[in-house]
Amino acid sequence: MRLSLWPSDTVLTKFYGRATRSLNVFAASGRILRKKHQLVQMNKQRTSMYVIQWVNTVALALSIVVLGLGVFLVTQHDNCEKMISTPILITGGFVMCISLIGYVGALREVSLLLWAYTLLVCLLLGAMAGFTLFTYIATHRGPGDHPKSVGAHDYKLHDYSGWLQNLLNDRDNWEHMKSCFVKPKYCEDMIFKFKNPQELKHATLSPLEAGCCTPPSECGYSPKNATFYILQSPPLSSHKDCMIYKNNIAIKCYNCDSCKGVIAHYLRKEWRIIALVNIVMFTMLIVLYSIAYCTRSVSLKKKVIS
């Protein structure tokens, strides 16, 4: 009897059946794992979309508050706060538009809107960073001496940046600023606040009183009362403010460099506050951008898997 080394048909059939079943099991396991992975990605997608909708809802509410603040500044100050209200209105409007685009894009899962949202956030971040940097440079101290005390009339325009000096030396700009900040009533009321020259000499004057209502101390003018000075000729100093000052309540030192220095001081403080607000909003938008980027990445992964 001759032995055959080749397996019988029965053995081959059983082996083929087992191999087929094993392959089917592996294939089924692969499909299950793939579906689980897709479900995980879909859950991540939904979570990211919900988060970005929520964040943009908050941003939309904040933008409405910012716009309301800008409108309030315009209406309540006779457009005197235009330099502050304008950037506030622009920032609030831009944030509102971006928030709406991001919200709709996340709600409808529209990739084009999410791309536009990401791009606009990048542009806004760049613009805010540039504006903040410009604000700090423009409001930086100039080469002159820093103010030490209000009573000593130490507010000087040359103590501030060249940009602020050019802004306030422009006739139209200065007339607008003067009408907003400098009121003759401030100078008129000094006669009731200070009864005699000694009180005036030792008093701590407000910036406007010191820089716009009284002559610079370097002129050497002696006060007869709080609103009237003995204008000796020539003054002790050759500074042009000594020649500009007049006792007339309608003139006073409203066009002096010392008065412009006071306004520069106010503008510097206000613009620094805007810069701080920009830094806070910049940080918040960084978070928004990160969420938008993660959402877009998950959306792309979902499309590749499917």
Automatic annotation (TrEMBL):
Q: Does the keyword Transmembrane apply?
A: yes
Q: Which PANTHER family match?
A: TETRASPANIN-8-RELATED
Topology in the lipid bilayer is annotated as: Multi-pass membrane protein
Q: Which PROSITE patterns match?
A: TM4_1 (PS00421)
Where does this one sit in the cell?
A: Membrane
The UniProt similarity line reads: Belongs to the tetraspanin (TM4SF) family.
What Gene Ontology cellular component terms go with this record?
Answer: membrane
- Keywords carried by this UniProt record: Membrane, Transmembrane, Transmembrane helix
UniProt protein name: Uncharacterized protein
Checking Pfam families in the record gives: Tetraspanin
Q: Which domain of life is it from?
A: Eukaryota
Organism of origin: Adiantum capillus-veneris
Which processes are annotated in GO (biological process)? auxin-activated signaling pathway
Q: What is its main location?
A: membrane
Q: Which residues cross the membrane?
A: 51-74, 86-106, 112-138, 273-293
